[in-house]
């Protein structure tokens, strides 16, 4: 099986390169309004935002930032298929403006935006992120009543486009082979994830600290789980706030196609550095899932409970009939696709001799990067 992965360097307020109804799942994390690290980016999208911040009008800045995100949500509505799912990872912001401290409820504003576009909200997930202990106590320490609770969670808001779930042909292999184990279902489909660790994504190389700080990457576990939960093999996953490409990395490891769009070409260029490690990463994820399943089998048997079914492709029992067809995959090979340039340049714009397969084309201001991955059933040894 082959999957393709395309990333556009550009503004997701206009996703013209992506066809209507061509995406089954969106997994993304926007820049969070009213988190200071994104002020300049939002001001670049609408200068009135900078004016509002400067004049101390936090509420106006918050509204204007969300107005920019709304334009991306409108594009998601267009490109998603009926019954397609959008998973939006977002955190609220706390901020003092003009001497006044308050919370800016991003999750509530995004929920409202999707609902008003006709999406159906589905139960959401809260995940616990590691807190910076220095920032843990806000306000006046041990004396009531002016201390504030620290935000240590983020949301994954989940929406379905249209009132009906997606349909599949009966017995569709690509759906049954993408099934998850019963105990994974129990862990993933809870509304509180406490077992996801925030990670500082290694972008590689010295002098990359600034890039890393600016990426605000989420842990791979988040998009990987969501992709397994809400899509089947062969589906296409879109991230319109692509950043360092964590969603694409997860989609490749999970055997789905992906699309992405990102303003900052510097982030996109760095993805090439991560590509050589993808086959080993995908194998390790698949093997870890199987190992965890075997541990679950042992503990369930020790607890005196039995199993009614055997997996078709693995030497292991499973709890339900639906898990029998599970077939994990690993990436056998991955290569860069040719870019969209007319000059046949398949190299980085700064280095035509590049052998890294980096396929951006810097001349037309509309760069596109792409990868093709070949997947095979998970090798067990
Ligand atoms: C929170 S970060 C996403 C991080 C990503 N999930 C990862 O794991 O690396 C948000 C990203 O959206 C990008 N961005 C913001 N507004 C955008 C827009 N209008 N179009 C495209 N990308 C945008 C920013 O440059 C930033 O990289």
TrEMBL record:
Bias-annotated ranges (Basic and acidic residues): 371-381
SUPFAM superfamilies the UniProt entry points to: S-adenosyl-L-methionine-dependent methyltransferases
Stretch list, region Disordered: 336-381
Keywords assigned by UniProt, alphabetized: DNA-binding, Methyltransferase, Restriction system, S-adenosyl-L-methionine, Transferase
Domain DNA methylase N-4/N-6: 23-269
Any Pfam family: N6_N4_Mtase
Protein EC: 2.1.1.113
GO molecular function per UniProt: DNA binding; N-methyltransferase activity; site-specific DNA-methyltransferase (cytosine-N4-specific) activity
Catalysed reactions listed for this entry: a 2'-deoxycytidine in DNA + S-adenosyl-L-methionine = an N(4)-methyl-2'-deoxycytidine in DNA + S-adenosyl-L-homocysteine + H(+)
Source organism, top-level taxon: Archaea
Database matches in InterPro entries: DNA_methylase_N4/N6 (IPR002941), MeTrfase_CN4_CS (IPR017985), RM_Methyltransferase (IPR001091), SAM-dependent_MTases_sf (IPR029063)
Compositional bias (Acidic residues): 336-354
PROSITE patterns: N4_MTASE (PS00093)
GO BP annotations listed: DNA restriction-modification system; methylation
Family: Belongs to the N(4)/N(6)-methyltransferase family. N(4) subfamily.
Protein name in the entry: Type II methyltransferase
């Amino acid at each position: 099986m082959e999957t393709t992965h395309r990333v556009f360097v550009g503004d997701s307020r206009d996703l013209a390169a992506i066809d209507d109804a061509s995406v089954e799942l969106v997994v993304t994390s926007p820049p969070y309004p009213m988190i200071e690290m994104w002020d300049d980016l939002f001001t670049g999208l609408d200068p009135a935002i900078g004016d509002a911040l400067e004049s101390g009008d936090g509420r106006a800045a918050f509204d204007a930032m969300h107005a920019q995100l709304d334009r991306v949500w409108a594009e998601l509505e267009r490109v998603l298929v009926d019954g397609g799912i959008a998973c939006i990872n977002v955190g609220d912001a706390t901020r003092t403006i003009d001497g006044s401290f308050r919370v800016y409820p991003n999750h509530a504003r995004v929920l409202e935006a999707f609902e008003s576009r006709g999406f159906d909200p589905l139960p959401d997930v809260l995940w616990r992120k590691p807190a910076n202990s220095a920032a843990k106590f806000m306000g006046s320490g041990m004396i009531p009543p002016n201390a504030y609770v620290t935000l240590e969670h983020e949301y994954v808001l989940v929406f379905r486009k249209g009132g009906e779930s997606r349909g599949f042909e009966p017995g569709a292999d690509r759906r049954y082979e993408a099934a998850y184990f019963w105990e994974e279902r129990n862990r993933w489909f809870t509304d509180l994830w406490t077992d996801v660790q925030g990670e500082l994504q290694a972008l590689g190389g010295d002098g990359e600290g600034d890039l890393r700080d600016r990426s605000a990457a989420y842990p791979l576990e988040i998009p990987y789980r969501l992709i397994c939960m809400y899509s089947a093999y062969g589906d296409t996953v879109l991230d319109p706030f692509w950043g360092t490409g964590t969603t694409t990395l997860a989609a490749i490891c999970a055997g789905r196609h992906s699309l992405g769009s990102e303003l900052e070409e510097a982030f996109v260029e760095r993805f090439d550095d991560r590509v050589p490690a993808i086959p080993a990463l995908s194998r390790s994820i698949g093997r870890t899932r199987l190992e965890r399943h075997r541990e679950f089998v042992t503990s369930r048997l020790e607890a005196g409970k039995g199993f009614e079914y055997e997996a078709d492709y693995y030497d292991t029992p499973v709890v339900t009939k639906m898990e029998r067809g599970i077939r994990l995959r690993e990436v056998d090979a991955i290569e860069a696709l040719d870019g969209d340039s007319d000059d046949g340049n398949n190299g980085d714009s700064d280095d035509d001799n590049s052998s890294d397969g980096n396929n951006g084309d810097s001349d037309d201001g509309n760069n596109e990067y792409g990868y093709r991955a070949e997947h095979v059933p998970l090798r067990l040894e």
